[in-house]
Every structure is written in structure tokens, then in C-alpha cells.
User: Fold these one by one.
Assistant:
Number 1:
Amino acid sequence: MGRLNLDDVFFKLTMENLEIIVEGLEMKEGDSSLAICSAGDVPFALLEFGSVLAVDYNSNQLKYAQLRKDLLVANDENFFDLGIGCYNYFLVRDYFSERLEKIRVNVKNLDFRKMNLFRAIPRGEFTKVYLSNILGYYWNRSPIEMKSKFALDLIKRMPQGGVICVVGPENFKGLEIDRLSIIPKRKMNPKSSYGLGWEYSFYRVAPKNL
């Protein structure tokens, strides 16, 4: 992927709550996940349960996440310490502290790919999808037809019962897609309070005959 200048990396740690994302996605052993890469924290968290394809249109974020993957394999403390100075450094570190060995065992099942999901959905089947807040970047200036096409293309790659996580105020609300239903909000009690200011929405993929 080429050389990386850390000054060119905007996201060095996630600003979202990993516990809420993992619990809301109903992660379980054997899941195959598609995730926005960003700093890599969410892909690493999902990796505990199965395989992950992490995508991003920003090359520097992908290089940064690949560097963290290499540090994880090497059992290097810099896996965390690259994010020193971020307000949520210790909270992210605490989340991974009891999970890191299992994630390291699965690290061969993590792949990175540069791509824009609004232009193409990668091939394969994904039981879980994490979109972060990417809808906020495109939704307001996209016609309803494009929004519906994106959602339909996405769920074509997902089985019945698959779950999608959307972060932020822009979600799939207003799209009349029979196979996509919002999961009612339930009370969650994450150990850490970081990222609680975000709105988290979770959607389930329904059977094709609905």
C-alpha cells in the first residue's frame, strides 16, 4: 500500500462505542462481516467472531489499519499506542484488553480493500455489515432512487437474518424496502461511556418472499 505518514491519518481510534456495535449486530461465531475500516477498531472487534472485509476509500486509513494489523501479529504495544493522545485511548484499550488474543488468532481472516461502497458492493455473502456514518456523507445529496439501489444492492449480499449497523442521524428511514426492517431499540449498558453521543440504528434482513 506504500509508505504511511501518520500525520495524514485523520482517524487513529474509533469515536464510536464498540460494545454497542458488537451487541447490536448480534455478533456470533462464524460471522462474515463487511465493515467500514476507518481506524480499524470496529473491524478488529468484529474479527473476534469470524472473518472481516474492511473497506475504505481513504488509502491512508487502510495503510494505518494494515500497520495496526502487523503490530497486532507482532504483539507490539504500538497497536494501541499509535492512538495515544486520543480522548478515548484508555477506553478502546480496555475494550480490547480481554479480547486481543482471540482476535490475534483470527487475524489471518482480516482483509482490507480500497473501495467506495456507494459505487460497488464487494462480492461475497456477509452476515453482518457495519456502515459507520458513511450515509451522512452522501444521503442528503442523493436522490431516493440511489438510496434505494444502494440498500437493495447491499442486502443482495446478505442472508436472511443478517444485520446492518448504521451510525448517525442518516439511516434507511423512509425507504420502502420490504426486506429491511429496523430492530427495535433495546437498553444497552456498555461499560464505557465513549461514543454514546452517536445514534446507532440496526436493521435486519428479512426473507426474500416478503
Note: The radius of gyration is 17 Å.
Number 2:
Amino acid sequence: MKSKLSIFFSLIFILFGSIVFFSNCNQDKKDEKYNSEPETSKEILNLMEAAYLWYEYIPGSFNIQNYKNAKTTFNALLYKPRDKWSFISTRTAWEQTKEGEDQSYGINFKYDANYNVRVTFVYDNSPMAKAGIKRSYIMQKVNNKDVDELINEGSFTNELGKGENKFQFRTPAGDTNTYQIQRQSFQMNAILYNEIKQVAGKKVGYVVLNTFLPFAESEIDTIFTKFAQESIDELILDLRYNGGGSSYLSQNLASLIVPSSHYGDAYVKYSYNDRVAEQADTTFTFIDPLQDTSLAGKPLDLSRLFVISTPMTASASEVLINGLEPYMDVIHIGDYTNGKPVGMQQFNIGNYAAVPVLFKMANANGEAEYYNGLEPDAFVMDDVSHYFGDKHEDCYEEALYYIRNNEFSGEAAKTLKRYPSRQKYFIPKGRRAFIGCY
């Protein structure tokens, strides 16, 4: 199915490309004068007019000569009131990201309830991890400037883009230390934490899965095979910082979790724009892991699932939550998810990987359009003052409470409003949204 869609879009791209190319042929000389990448920019325009979900908002008078290069052309074509996700990158950078290779500090952070900027996670092999930085550390200064000052100036993330910085952190024990750290290349880990523990006479599997990019497949295979071999009774799937990735991996994981009676039932439906919908609209189903030997991991065949989310939980992660809802009890703890009910596809154009939004996503009940995020059953703060797996970490503690008592604690009673003191997240843009780090 995946290859057929790719072939289909290649044909559509050629068809619409021919139409647009000839309609613009009289402007070629002007385009070359003003745009440093005219041919690549034309191909991007052709693609967007053919397949972009919101193509109708592209002005008929759009002219690539008004833009400096392919990147600025692509960004100018986006429907800004709705599209927060489409991006363009070099092909090399995006391919490296999909394979788990990154060059950064390997860290993410957020405000806690006291407005401290705390570390949410650190990739195991990253420069920050090698320096000893861990979740819950408070970042106080960068290059001798207070973090709050940098944030107020709007220069915080720009400062983190430098190749080397001096950081001051305070540990949970209250010690203050300064570190000189360089951005370096490293291999990311998709699973930040996992364990199996006994709770109220049950085996409970807990896993913090940080991405659905292709490099996560082998780690998912290993941990879910382990969960199956240990015959866990309950699963807590922590997607709080998972920005999405491969819909194929999301489908595979959902197939390992869903009750076996639903193999073959609809998991997610893709709906494309009206120019290509008849040929491209697709429904993906749950896969029988015993019939498809390529599926990562072993089936758990659970009756219910616990999920932890935050506003960083996006895309393929949201599809998993929404896709399982019609078939099993999904007990959703945390905050609203990101609100990305649309999917993207990669097109290699010149040296670029253009990744625009192409389709909407709905579950078997037709539930879609969750641009405000998926609402949790229990609103619980992301407790960055504790490590993953700490029984006192608020979200994890709430899931364990439910397993013991089959109900939420009084502090996590269901409300119809967002958590009143919702914390601010620093969510990267573009390809970095899928890995979450700076």
C-alpha cells in the first residue's frame, strides 16, 4: 500500500508539474533572475498545488520570483492559520534524523510549576548526558546570562543553536555546577525508560517511547517482545514527549496492543485533498502479528491501555491513542495532546526533502479534527521534579493508583477545562519536532 501511494504521487507530481511548468514558461527568465533555485522552486510549487491539503489557499498569482530560494518558496506556500507542521530540510539532515543520528546538545526542557526551566529528558549518548545532566535538573544560566532573561529577550533557543555554550545547572539536591559543553553528533535512543513491576498482584509494563521515527523499530521490537515474554497484565505507554514519526510503526505498535479480536479492523483513515482523494484515500487496519512476521515485537492482546500525554504528544502518537479508542479502554492521563490530526509525506526535490501536510486522519468512528488536542481522562501535571519510573512522579503515580483502585485519585478528578496552571513547553519546529531536542 505504501509503495502504491508513492507511485501514485509521483505520477500526480509529474502531471501537475507539466501543467504548472507550461503555464509559467514565459516567466522563466524573470524567475532565474530573482530566485537562486528556480527549477527546484517550480517543482515545489507544482507539488503543493497538486497534493497539499490546503492547496486552495495558494494564490493563483503566486510567483516564485518573489522568493530567494526553494526554502523561502516552500514556507511562503504554507497555510499559516492552520499549518504548524510542514517543513523543508536538506535530504541529508532529514535522513540522518530518521535513522537516529543528530548533532545537538540532546536535551529538552520546560517550565515547572514554579517557573524554573527544568530538563525533561536527555538522550543517553548526547553531550549533555556525557556531562552528567539528567531529567529534573534546573537550567539557570547560559553563557553567564540568566535563562529567564534570554527567554524574555527571545534569544534562548538561538543561544542553544551555538556550537558551544557554558551552562549552569542546579541539581535536585541543590548543588549548582557549571559545564562547558559542545554540540556533537550522537545516536539517539527512542526508549528513554522501561521497567516491569508488580502492582496489586499484576505485572505492569511501563515504557517511555520518545519517537516513532524509523530508528525506533528495533527498540520497540526488543521491549515489546520482553513484555510479551513476561506476560504483562497492564501497559503504561508514556508518550509525553513523543512528537510522532512513522505511521507504519504506530500501526505496528497499536496492533501489538489491541485485542486480537480486532485484527483486520480499521485503525486509521487517511483523507487527501479533493484533487487526489479518489485515488489516494486509504484505510489502514490492525495487523495480525502472528501472520505478519515483519511486525516488530510480540502481541500483548490487552483489554485496556494507560497512556500519558502532554502538548508534545503529536501526530503518530495521537493516531495511536485515537485509533485504539473504538476497540479498548484507553485510560488517558496528563494534559491535552499537541493537536495534529494531519499527516505528512516526504518528497525529495533536488537536495531538499520537502515534507508537507497531505492528509487528514480519522479513527474507525470518524473521530478527527482534534486540532485542540485529545483531551485526557485525568488532568495531571508533567512532574519533571521526579525521574521516569519514580513512584512519586505525578503521571506515573496516577496510573499506578488506577491499577490498584480501578478509579482516579481525588486530585486527578475529571474536569472539562485544561489544567489551570498548565506548564510551558519548548517544542522544536520542523524535523526536530519528531525528536524533541535542542
Note: Residues 2-23 form the longest helix (22 residues).
Number 3:
Amino acid sequence: MIRPSARAGASGRTTGSTRSSVQHELMPRVSLDVGYYRRVFGNFTVTDNLDITPADYTSFCITAPNDPRLGSVSASQVCGLADISQAKAGVAGTPSNQIIRFASEYGGERSQVYDGIDFTVNARPNGRLFLQAGVSTGRTVTKTCSVVDNPQTLRFCEVQEPFLPNYRVSGGYTFPYQIAGERCVPEHWPAAAAVTSRHARR
């Protein structure tokens, strides 16, 4: 079941964009462009099992193995885990009473934001040569920290991608003259033989 207000907004997520850039002349015929980009996604929806609430879960901890490869986690308590009560285990496994609502109706944050920055250097050493080099980088931060049914969803609910640079170099040159070509068949090449339907039937 979809809540009417969520159905009205389910046609697509909202997107807000911000873009700003500045250009500066470093020296004659050389300029620097710097741009900042931000895109915010919203209008997220979640599926809520009406037969289950966060109170139906019991939080617990476990002890991590004693292994130096685990670093600081080795032999420590790992908490934030949740287990459904036995009375609601069957309901959680076969949900039948569900409703789709906006994530903003629940506690916590659910968002997705992209931030990016772009550097570009343009150079024209003369009237015919054009050179361009730059680097772009950005990352997306996704938060799914709204508690609907299972409180364990708060574990690792925020994902921050690393900044990944993208380098580029390009250029162009305008020739002062036009180049034209013509393909000629040497006289010593044999002429192509014509094939008629009479030859094809043999």
C-alpha cells in the first residue's frame, strides 16, 4: 500500500543543484577556471511493515575474535546489532501489511549529496594553437539513517565515498591551409572483371 502523499511524490525524486564558477587570467593568453558543483537529492520513500516497530527488536553485542589483523576491533565489543523477538519473527519473514511513506516522516536522516570541484587551465600560445588541462574531483555522501522497523539499519547508515580525481588534457591546432587528397589506381593494377548473372549460374 502506498500512502496518497507518497504516491503523489513517487513520480521522481527531487533534485536541487548549485553551481558557481570563477575565471582568472594567470598571464596573457592563459586563464584558470574554478567551478564548484553541489547536487542534493530528496523526496526519498521507505517501506514500513505496520506489524513491526523498533520496540520489537532487542539490541545486543558480540565479542570480536582476537586477531591482530582486525586492528582496534580485535577482542572488542561490537554493538549496535538487533534481533527480532520470537513473537514477531514470523511476521518479519513474511511481511504482508506494508505501507510506503516519505522517509521524512520517521526519525533520522535520509539524504544524498554530491559535492564536486573542477579546475581547468586554458592556454592559447598563438592564434592557431589551443591547449587545455584540468582535474575534476567529487564525492557523494549517502545517509539512510531513518529508523523504520529495524534499528540495526543505523549501522553503517552513512556512506562517504572518497574523492576520486579525474585528469584530462586536450588541445587543437588550426592549419593555415586546407589538405585535400585523391586516390588513384596505378596503371599496372588489373582491371576488375564484371560478373553477370550468366557467370553466376555456372
Note: The first strand starts at residue 15 and ends at 27.
Number 4:
Amino acid sequence: MAFLGARKSADELGLRLLDFLVAVFCKPDAPLVLAIDDTLFGRSGRRVFGAHYLHDGSQPAGQGRRTRWGNCWVKVALVVCLPCLGGRAICLPVLFRLFRPKTAEDQARPSQPELARAPVGTGPYRLVSFVPDDRVVLAPNPDYFEGPPRNRGIELKVVPDDTMRGLELRKGTVDIVVNDLAPDIVHQLEQEGRLRTKTAPGTDFAYLGLNLRDPILRDRRVRHALGFGIDRQAIVDYLRRGLATPAVGIVPEASWAFEPDVFRFHDDPALARRLLDEAGFLDPDGDGPAPRFRLSLQTSTSEVYRVQAAVIQHDLREIGIEVDVRSHEFATLYADVLRGQFQMYTLQWVGVTDPDMLRRVFHSGQVPPAGFNRGFYANPEVDRAIDAATLATDDRTRRRLYGEAQRLIAEDAPYVPLWTKTNVAVFGPDLRGVVLSPVAAFTFLKDVFRE
């Protein structure tokens, strides 16, 4: 029996590593079971939507059942009936877990956890060894349908410390690091000139999240003042060392649904002060030290993000807002965000490729636990545009409607966009074939070779 179980990490490298391993071990060798947990409930405890599972042309199974099919890949859709869409059914892609059903022989033998570490697949590599928190060793699969990889195998090493990753590259004990070095370390290695770098536009989106239930932040003029008060270009140029661009919104510029004609922030402290005056938050002592009001900003303990928070704190002090920066371990920060226990926070969306993320993040029906609208943003016009885009059957209509939603969201500013990451790989001078996709997937590694 082959079983592959995985838990997605909350950090961007973990997401990309999992995507890479799934691509390597991507085809089953036995009958499979599709198991989807459809117990999605709203805040009141009522079911948010009902679900049916479709497979290889046969009749839908009942809700909550497991659906089995044979040794083949089939497209699986989740047909959902959303009350907000008038009860009309739509098809959505589904993330699901695949595993072989237990046989009588399986039931009779004791649990064998080692099977979870020996997946069988038909990707470009086969698993040689796996040591938790240390390394994964992959060897070429000579039977891969697109031909064998251009290298003799890959060893994925776990090096938790940022500085140590840079040192291993410098010593030559690591050949390549993708998107896992601090900008200052990338800059230093570039200055030394012994290693090569390659960059490409990315999709990771850093933002300042705002709690719109807060009596101060519910005023759009205040949110605009925050956006005009933060020098985002300085963050890109100095903190990110140019490895980013000032962000427009959560939909990346590389997306087919990206809307360029939207409201955008720029560095304008004078305008920010005028907006705060209009909102009734007058400066109590002119150029003196007394603030107009105070806000708290929650961020992670990562050095890069703590420094970024300090820059935001400095910029907002210049327009009369005193910011209390609170750094937390990621688990604590994320838990507070999920519970809505914040005024402002900084986080990143990783690998956004589908405009449906607008629904998950900004639709009023997607406040936790239903979705990711953690700032409690609500605009009926945005809901209408997103709902209509979800029902649309052609890309031209979908793009127009998603564009309308992006324009409205940009004006309302439930987020202050900070930057969109520029992907970067740092690698040895003898490596060839390094190509970065917008999501910086590791699948290109099969085409990397040593000259």
C-alpha cells in the first residue's frame, strides 16, 4: 500500500516544498478513495453549503460519503449550492486527500507508519531516504514519461537558520537556495561575486491588515491616511534590497484577472495629515510630540518583519499616529489574527494565482471561520461583483467583474498593500537550467544540471 500524508506548512518554503513533492509523487498505484470533509458551518452552527461529489460520470454520492474509483485519474469537482447566489449550483475545484482503501489484509496487520515515508509514484524522481527535520534524498526515475532529469538526483536539506543557509552556499555545501535568504544576505552574496543569482516577478503579497470593527479604523479616511503615510518604496528599496515591487493588491500583476486601473497609494505625508484632520483626529500640539491617537501593530519575531514594523512605526509617527509594535512567535500572531484580536498586523499571502481569492478574503460571507476575511470587511457591491464573477461562464465576463471588485476594494482599503515579492534564486556558478516561475515552484529542479 502506498500512502502519502502531508500537512501544509504556514511558511512559503513549506508550501513550495510540498507542491514539489506532490509533483514528484503524483500518480497512484492502487484503487483510491476520495475523502472530503464537508462539515463547513457558519458562526451560528448552520451548514454554509451542501456538497455532492462527482466522479468519472457516475451518479453523485451522498453528502459526506467516500467515493471510490479505479486506477485512473479523473477530474473531481465539488458542486456547491450557495445561499448568497440564490441557491444556484456552481462547480469549484477541490483540494482533497487520496489514499488506497484498506483491504482485509491491511486490517489484519499492525499499523505500519513507515509506509507513509515510502511513497510510490511516477514523477521525475524516486524517494531514496527521508530524515525528519534534516533532509530528503531523491534519485532520478529512469521511467519518467518525459525522460529522466538532467541531474543525478536532489538532496533537499533542512537548514533552519538564515545565516547558515548563506554560509553553506558560500562554502559550496549547498548548490542552490530559492526564496529562502534574507534580502541583506542575498545582497552580500551578490557583492562578493562568487555566486550567481536569478530573479523573476513573484506573486507573494505582503500587506498591512486592518480590523474594520475598530472605532478608529472603520473610517476609510483613516485607512487612506495610513496608506499615504507609509513610504512603501523605501521599504522595497532598502529593506527588501529591490527584491520586491510596491503592491497594488492581492491579485498579482501576472494574473489574467489583474486590474491595473485601481486606486493606489503613494508616499504623501501631507495628504495623510489632511485626511486625519477631515476624519476629526486633529493634531493636539502641531509639531509637538503628542499623537492624534494610538494603534497597535502585531508582527512576527522574524528580523525582517520586525525591522519593517519599525519603519511603519516611524512613518506613521510622522503623521501623528503613535504605533505600539508587538512581536510574537508566528503561532501566537496567527491565532490572534484568526480571533480578530488586533488593530493592525502584517502578514503575507503566498502564491496567489486565482482571482477567487478575492471572495475568500473580502466577501462579507467569508469572515472566520468560514473564510479569510479577518478584518471584517463588508461592501455589498463587492459581494455582488464577486458572486457574479463566480457564476460567469466566460473569462471576459469574469475578468470584468473581478476588475470591478478590485477597484472597489482598492478604494475601501481594508488592506494597505505593502509589496509583492520578487523571486530570487542564489546558486553556484556551475549550475545551469535555473528557471523561476511566478510561484517559485521547485519543479524546475529536474532541468538543472552542472556544467
Note: The chain has twelve helices and 19 strands.
